Amino acid sequence: MKNNTMTQPVLELLRSHRSIRKFTEQPVEESLLRDLITAGQSAATSSNLQGVSVIRVRNPETRRAMAELAGGQAYVEEAAEFLVFCADLNRSGWCCEQSGKTMADGMTEHFIIATVDVALFAQNVVVAAESEGLGICYIGALRNDPQQVSDLLALPDNVYPVFGLCLGYPDQDPECKPRLPLDAILMEEHYQPVNAERMAEYDETMRTYYQRRTGGKLDRVWSQEMSALLGKESRPHMREFLEKKGFKMR
């Protein structure tokens, strides 16, 4: 008989994820932080590349600069910990040099597997952190100016900042944001067309959520958010930046 003793708590934990943007002043114990990063290392990694480096930023001036680069997100400064997760091919390039070989620079596949490694690693860290009562907020806005972030962190070629992560003890208890209906995501045998009725129902769910969250000040739905997001160019500087860093996508 299958033992479900631990299964349900894990599922409940995963379903209860929220982004936290207000933190207490309680520090994260050094031993716990190291345990969280070790949990990240246990994530799946393509071909054992382990193409991740995590930079812990504690210098207040660096934190302040990164908060500004991220569009003035104050919690970058205020969280007990701020980590920058980087896709790292520099280390594997060093291995090539030590073996007397030349790394095949700029391969799109290498870029993909290093970036996926970062996402899997970070999500392990997040789940482990939330299981310990911590809150988190991903900071993708570091890519607003990835060159300045790279300069602040002295990132070499073949390393780029994928996102930041605020980490600390929550000082708020926000509602979980509703996700798309499962039937819109889980498909049988082949890709299914978008169901307009289902999407309209989800839009109304999101409208209710935003109005409740903002006390009626925000009237917005998911389809509008996606139109705004994908209906304009998004960080067009990233391609040139990545090419300069050695990620030529060939």
From TrEMBL:
One of its GO terms (molecular function) is oxidoreductase activity. Pfam families: Nitroreductase (PF00881). Gene3D superfamilies: NADH Oxidase. CDD domains: NfsA-like. Keywords: Flavoprotein, FMN, NADP, Oxidoreductase. Residues 14-169 form the Nitroreductase domain. InterPro entries: Flavin_OxRdtase_Frp (IPR016446), Nitroreductase (IPR029479), Nitroreductase-like (IPR000415). Belongs to the flavin oxidoreductase frp family. PANTHER family: OXYGEN-INSENSITIVE NADPH NITROREDUCTASE (PTHR43425:SF2). This is FMN reductase. It comes from Endozoicomonas elysicola.
